[in-house]
Amino acid sequence: MMAACALVAVSCNKTSNSGSPTGPTNPVAPGAPVVYTAVGASDANGVGSSVVCIPFTDCPNGMGYVQVAVRTLQAQGSTVTLRNLGIPTAVIGPDIQALGRQYGRTIEGNFIDHEMPFVLGNSTIVTIFAGGNDVNVITAALGGGAGGSDGLGYVDAQVRTFAADYATLLNGIRNRAPSARIVAVNVPNMAGLPYLAGASLDQRRAAQRAAVGMTTTVINPLVSQGVAVVDAMCDGRSYQPSNYYSDGLHPNDAGYAFIASEVVRAMTSGSYPAPQGSCGAMTIVP
To answer: For residue 52, what are the contacts with CB-CB under 8 A and spacing of at least 6?
Structure first.
């Protein structure tokens, strides 16, 4: 199975973030003030929802997961200061950004250069949702001929690049906001999202290999470093067409609502569950 091969091929990345310091794990106390920085892409602005937010603006009525999470915390009695750094089309680092541009994709920024330096130093919560755009860059590069005869090896190499960039991002966030509880959302199996329903088998296999590799070897292991990981990969709601906008890629209001509910649980629970080590969603494509 392709996903199983991916786990073997990139298993060496399981310790790629081992140099990062263990971060605070204290959850948000009921009613406590919250300083929240959101690191992300179009999802942070609610693209696909009924109320899309303009980047870097106050958007109290937005319907993306960031805005819904803020309102949920406020309803629980917290005052919330938000800095939403989400940049539509952004990828995790400058290398993947350059790769995307090389193969004709519009990428307006990356998390390391254009978001990490602006994380609020007094943040008590930082969320990270990375990987979806990166998977799409990798499959676009493969479609353009990258990797030659070794497409699977090329995907694995890009997952290793993603791992190195994620370590840089996490270290930078912790240096800027040492008291923040960090909540990361892992990458769902992009091959199972509606937008790839009509794609070729090769493209879906590549998307699955990249997404499963990013989730299982890069993001999920961060629980051992004090990061709360929301398990979008193994949550069946990630694959329900009714949770997606008409483009099949961005969530709609219902999709963002379920992400927000899990993000808030991860922010406020002292015993938020670790992501699953394996699940059927990892092998959607044979």
So the answer is: 45, 46, 62, 63, 64
For strand 228-230 and strand 125-129, is the pairing parallel, antiparallel, or unpaired? unpaired
Q: In 114-241, where do the E strands start and end?
A: 125-129, 181-185, 228-230
Selection from 21, 244, 227, 29 nearest residue 130 by Cα: 227
Question: Which residue ranges make up each domain of the chain?
Answer: 23-273
Q: Are 188 and 212 within 8 A, CB to CB? A: no
pLDDT digits (tens, 9 = 90+) for 195-210: 999 999 999 999 999 9
Q: How confident is the model at residue 24 (pLDDT cuts 50, 70, 90)?
A: low
Looking at domain 23-273, does it have CATH number 3.40.50.300?
no
Element (H, E) at 72: helix 65-75
DSSP state of 36: E
pTM value surpassing 0.85: yes
What are 11's two structure tokens? 């298993």
Closest CA to 116 of 44, 43, 45, 40: 40
Instruction: Residue 56: count other Cβ atoms within 10 Å of its Cβ.
Output: 13
- Residue 222 structure tokens: 């961060």
Tokens representing 226? 């004090």
pLDDT band at 26 (very low <50, low <70, confident <90, very high): confident
116-149 tens-digit pLDDT: 999 999 999 999 999 999 999 999 999 999 999 9
